[in-house]
Design a protein that fits this description.
49% of the residues are buried. The protein has one domain (52-423). The protein is mostly helical. The chain has helices at 2-15, 20-35, 41-50, 57-70, 73-85, 91-107, 110-127, 132-144, 153-162, 166-194, 206-220, 222-231, 237-256, 261-294, 297-308, 312-327, 332-349, 354-370, 376-385, 389-412, 415-423.
């Protein structure tokens, strides 16, 4: 009954249009006032939540993404992918998935990936005979890779809430992210081949391919630099964020030379806004976690798990279904910060690896981005194409099913997520 009332309170606040941090904070204060009769302890909770060196990764990765987007490296990325595989029938879709996969390692954001790649790729694909709804599905699904393939903003938030290793989570997302990208690419290739109207571009010639590869090399080198350094233990996740930001700055200013002082100021201001918003959400989530602990909600859930004699598999199944349903109505960050503090004690008691669970959570949150009624990527596509929302939803439906398949694969084979973290020393 307590959990029903709690979620009813939160949903009621969120449905008013209130920001996530305000809804979490107000709900926490109400709980403390009702059950404790005072709210003074919340001040210590807020300060403790923000006194964390890992938070430095957020503004640095955000600055890296803003600078690389402002420098328009996506143009070279898409051109490179297009030159490599665009001459094949169905190759434009493959190029789009490849571009989304690489750009996900730069932006760390699903919305930014869908928005940036979509504006370039959708007109091109439709010009070569792709059905409009197929192009919407490719972009919406490819954009979701931004929260699974590192560096991922939602992964950082999850790591902060659970005290899991950010470096371990980043490495854990690589293989599942590439696997899901490959599943998307294979389906899109088969879909394009089955459509007789789909055309292939002409072979641009080896000189054009080499030129495209040379132009995109600076963007392609960023993922190995950031993630390779973490894997080989050369630097920590926080240091990787600083190196990524410095690399993006050097590439934009010295290589592309299309980012001036005014642009850098704008990038810094955008970074400040993004970081301040996330810090407020983190502080409010800490308040919420403290409040639900006061009312013993995690303990009650643990007692319920014990009474039902749920196994590790049964618990994960119940949680994944609940998060899928929540994803139809709530934004990804809200889902992480509302559910994680509640279920974390039960996860630990059942010896569920937080890194493995974190990867499955990210895949489930990818589903939230493309499932109606509030899938964020659906509305991004609506904004850039002005297509009917029903047509966009029909295009993304096959990718919803493919993501569910990917989720079950990672569930059935945990080593897909845990291999790289264990090989690099995380989780030992």
């Amino acid at each position: 009954m307590t959990i029903v009332l709690l979620f009813g309170l939160l949903l009621g606040l969120l449905m008013t249009g209130m920001p996530i941090f305000a809804a979490l904070g107000i709900a926490s204060l109400i709980i403390m006032a009702v059950f404790e009769g005072k709210v003074l302890s919340m001040a210590d909770t807020v300060f403790a939540s923000l006194d964390n060196p890992l938070l430095a990764t957020i503004p640095m990765f955000a600055f890296m993404a803003h600078v690389m987007i402002r420098a328009r490296v996506v143009d070279d990325l898409y051109d490179m992918a297009n030159k490599l595989v665009g001459h094949m029938r169905g190759g434009l879709g493959l190029a789009t998935i490849l571009s989304c996969t690489i750009f996900a390692t730069i932006s760390g954001s699903s919305v930014a990936t869908a928005l940036t790649i979509g504006a370039t790729a959708i007109p091109q694909m439709q010009r070569f005979g792709y059905r409009p709804r197929d192009t919407y599905g490719i972009i919406a699904a490819g954009g979701t890779l931004g929260i699974l393939i590192p560096p991922s903003g939602p992964m950082i938030l999850y790591a902060i809430v659970t005290n899991a290793s950010i470096g371990g989570l980043f490495l854990a997302g690589i293989v599942p992210g590439l696997l899901i990208a490959a599943i998307f690419a294979l389906f899109n290739w088969a879909q394009a081949r089955a459509n007789p109207a789909t055309q292939a571009q002409g072979w641009p010639g080896m000189a054009a391919v080499l030129r495209a590869l040379r132009n995109s090399v600076w963007a392609v080198l960023m993922p190995p630099l950031v993630l390779g350094g973490i894997y080989f233990g050369i630097f920590t996740a926080s240091e990787a964020a600083a190196i990524g930001a410095a690399y993006a700055l050097l590439v934009a200013v010295l290589v592309y030379r299309n980012v001036g002082w005014r642009d850098l100021v704008d990038c810094a201001l955008d970074t400040m806004r993004t970081s301040a918003m996330l810090f407020m959400i983190i502080a409010a989530a800490a308040m919420f976690g403290h409040a639900v602990t006061i009312i013993r909600l995690p303990a009650q859930i643990m007692e319920g798990v014990t009474a039902l004699e749920l196994s590790q598999t049964g618990f994960i199944l119940v949680v994944m279904i609940a998060i899928f349903v929540l994803g139809m109505f709530l934004e990804t960050i809200a889902i992480i910060l509302i559910t994680t503090p509640i279920i974390l004690p039960a996860m630990m008691a059942l010896q569920i690896d937080p890194i493995w669970y974190g990867v499955m959570l990210m895949i489930n949150l990818e589903l939230a981005l493309i499932t109606p009624p509030v899938g964020m990527n659906l509305f991004v596509l609506k904004g850039i194409t002005n297509a009917p929302l029903g047509e966009i939803v029909r295009g993304t439906l096959p990718y919803v099913l493919l993501l569910i398949v990917g989720l079950f694969i990672v569930w059935a084979f945990p080593q897909l997520a845990l291999w790289l973290p264990l090989a690099s020393g995380f989780g030992r």
